[in-house]
Amino acid sequence: MSFQAYLDTIEDKTGLTPRELLTIAQEKGYDDPSVKAGVIVEWLKEDYDLGRGHAMALVHVIKKGPTIDSKHVGSTGTHRDESDTLWLDGKATKPA
């Protein structure tokens, strides 16, 4: 599953766009460099019933922003993404 597919599935499961979840995480201080990924994963499990894989995709966005390594772009396989920038504003507004 690509990074973007993880984020799209998170939206389906929670009803919130990745950007909305990012805002909530920032309000909780989870974007602070001292906050460990496990704390965020636990929050996402408790509040939104997200599994580790989906939570870790969101941890990446919270900690590093929407840019992913270009090695995932245009590569073959299940983790291929079309762009090195993830769309955070919801599937309904994603450019084609």
SSE arrangement, N to C = HHHH
What general form does the structure show?
A: globular
Please state the average pLDDT score: 90
In percent, how helical is the residue content?
40-55%
Task: Report how far apart the termini are.
Answer: 19 Å
Question: Which labels suit this protein?
Answer:
single chain; 96 residues; mainly alpha; 0% strand; globular
Short structural summary:
The protein has 96 residues and is mainly α. 49% of the residues lie in helices and 0% in strands. This is DUF4287 domain-containing protein.
Task: Break the fold down into its secondary structure elements and pairings.
Elements lengths: L2 H12 L3 H10 L9 H12 L3 H13 L32
Account of the protein in words:
The protein has helices spanning 3-14, 18-27, 37-48, 52-64. The mean pLDDT is 90. It is an all-alpha fold and 96 residues long. Helices cover 49% and strands 0% of the residues. The radius of gyration is 13 Å and the shape is globular. Pfam families: DUF4287 (PF14117).
